Amino acid sequence: MSCDAPRPWGIYFQDSATPQMEGLVELHDNILFYLVIILFGVGWLLISIVKNYTMTESPISHKYLSHGTLIELIWTITPALILILIAFPSFKLLYLMDEVSDPAMAILAEGHQWYWSYQYPDFLNNDNEFIEFDSYLVPESDLEDGALRMLEVDNRLIIPELTHVRFIVTGADVIHSLACPALGIKCDAYPGRLNQVSVMINREGVFYGQCSEICGILHSSMPIVIESVSIDKFISWLQEQ
């Protein structure tokens, strides 16, 4: 069972559902490996110095303890090498996430105070107009059994799985931010400006996010719910609009 929503006392990522989120988790784990080594190395040095270089243990300080070419080269070159090892995969992932190549469909997401509007510019409804709708937070009094408080919406954003989708993000009034942790996306929504981010969801599921830019008194009431379905279910959903 996948974890696609926040959990109480959760300290790790939600289960990834896109290649970019898998890359982010892998990068995090790799960097954490270096951090653990640095933590134990620096901790061992501090404990050794405190234990072995007290006035009673070593009343005469060694002259190379504070000045030494070799030790200065070591503590300069070693961090530089570690930063290089971290930088290469970081830049690679950054450029891969920014790449938007030949998407199969596009979705326009517009942030309002305090709800989201979505439009499918590649599809028309029965009235020969673009498919579009607003997505509002479901009040706690109207929640169904099992629904998540402060995260469920009345109209979910439906996306087909295994399909390259481009999000075009903008704001209608103030700055908002479209974010969904399980998909590894976070894109600021500026009024009068279009930002874009691409995503390809590799499994079916319901993924929860929230506006991640403080946008007013009801900022916490702007959840984002993205439901990934099969191609057949997506086509059936389009025909119902």
UniProtKB/TrEMBL annotation:
Keyword Membrane: yes
Record function comment: Component of the cytochrome c oxidase, the last enzyme in the mitochondrial electron transport chain which drives oxidative phosphorylation. The respiratory chain contains 3 multisubunit complexes succinate dehydrogenase (complex II, CII), ubiquinol-cytochrome c oxidoreductase (cytochrome b-c1 complex, complex III, CIII) and cytochrome c oxidase (complex IV, CIV), that cooperate to transfer electrons derived from NADH and succinate to molecular oxygen, creating an electrochemical gradient over the inner membrane that drives transmembrane transport and the ATP synthase.
Residue intervals of the Cytochrome oxidase subunit II copper A binding domain: 102-240
InterPro entries (alphabetical): CcO_II (IPR045187), CcO_II-like_C (IPR002429), CcO_II_C (IPR034210), Copper_CuA (IPR001505), Cupredoxin (IPR008972), Cyt_c_oxidase_su2_TM_dom (IPR011759), Cyt_c_oxidase_su2_TM_sf (IPR036257)
Pfam families: COX2, COX2_TM
Protein known as: Cytochrome c oxidase subunit 2
UniProt signal peptide: none
GO CC annotations on file: mitochondrial inner membrane; respiratory chain complex IV
Gene3D superfamilies: 1.10.287.90, Cupredoxins - blue copper proteins
Provenance organism: Lecanora strobilina
Positions of transmembrane segments: 31-50, 70-91
Cofactor(s) for this UniProt protein: Cu cation
Keywords of the record: Copper, Electron transport, Membrane, Metal-binding, Mitochondrion, Mitochondrion inner membrane, Respiratory chain, Translocase, Transmembrane, Transmembrane helix, Transport
Free-text comment on the cofactor: Binds a copper A center.
